[in-house]
Amino acid sequence: MSGPALEHERRSTPPIAATRSRRRSPRTGNVLAFVILAALLVPWLGVARFLLQATGGAPLLPSLVASLLVTGAGLLVAIPVAWLAAALVFEYPTTLAARMTKWVVDLLAGIPTLLFGAVAAAIFLRMSPSLKSVPFGALILAVFPAGFSLLPRLFRAFLRAFARVPGTYREAALSLGASRAHTLIAVVAKSARRDLVAGVFVAAAHGFGELGPVLFLGVDAAPLPLRVLAAGLGKDRGAAAAASLVLVVGMLTFQLLAALAQRPTADRGGLVSLFLEPRS
Q1: Residues 205-240: pLDDT tens digits?
Q2: Whole-number Å distance between alpha carbons of 260 and 94
Q3: Among candidates 142, 140, 126, which has minimal Cα distance to 208?
Q4: Which residues contact 244 (CB under 8 A, 6 or more apart)?
Q5: Pairwise CA distance, residues 223 & 12, whole Å
Q6: DSSP letters of 207-248?
Q7: Please, what is the angle between helix 137-164 and helix 61-91, to 10°?
Q8: Which of 7, 143, 145, 213 has the fewest CB atoms found within 10 Å of its own CB?
Q9: By the 8 A CB rule, do 151 and 81 touch?
Q10: pLDDT tens digits for range 235-278
Q11: Which CATH class is domain 50-275?
C-alpha cells in the first residue's frame, strides 16, 4: 500500500479511545436507570401522601419500615436454607435426600402463609408473653413465617439459575480436579449470580406484599399489608388506597430491580433498555 493511501486510511479510521468513549458506560446506564425509576415512582408516593393527609390517617413511613424489616429478615432466614437445598437437589438429584427436599419444599409451597403466621405467633407468645411490649418485638413474630413463605420461591429460583449454567463449565472444572462443592461455588454460582440476585428480588417483591406472616402482629408495628386490611375493615377508603398504593410501588420497585439485575452488564444502558432488544 502506497504512502498517501496508508495516510488516508489512518485518518479515516477513528482511534480506539474515541470509539470506546462513545459507548455508554455501565455505571452511567445504572445511574440513568435509577433516576428514571425515581421519576416514575416518586409522584405516586406523593399521591399516597395526599390521600393520607386528606383522610387524617397515621403516617405510612413506620409501616413501610416495618414491611422492609420483615421482608429483609425473612430473606436472611430463607436464603441460606434455599441455597443449600437447591445445591443438594442440583448436585445429587437422584438421592433420597434430594427427593425428600423437593417434597418438603412442595409441601411448604402448598401451605397458606396465614398458618405460618398463626403457628409462629402461638409459639413465640407462649414462650414470651411480653414480646409484643418490646420495641420491634412484634416484628420477631413475622421473621420465621416470612422466611418459610419465601423459601419455596427462592428454592425454585436458585434451582433454575443453577440449571441455566452450561454443563460444559461444570464438566471442565470437575475434569481439572475441582471438588463438587468448589465447582458449585466458584463456577456454577458465579456464572449464575445475575439470576440468583434477580430471584432474590422477585421473592422480596412477593414477601413485601404477603399478609399471612404479619397478620398476628401488634398494631404498634403494622406493616403495609396489615395497614391495608385494617383501613379496609374500618371503611377508611383514603387510608386503604394510600397504603395500597405504597405497597404496589414497593413491589414494583423490587420487580424492576430484579429486571435490572438480570440484564447483562454490556446491555445495562438504562431503564428503557429493559423493554427493547439489545443492539447487535
Answers
A1: 988 988 888 777 655 557 888 888 877 777 777 777
A2: 35
A3: 142
A4: 228
A5: 63
A6: HHT--GGGTTS-GGG--HHHHHHHHHHTT-HHHHHHHHHHHH
A7: 40
A8: 7
A9: yes
A10: 777 777 777 888 888 888 898 888 888 776 544 444 444 444 44
A11: mainly alpha
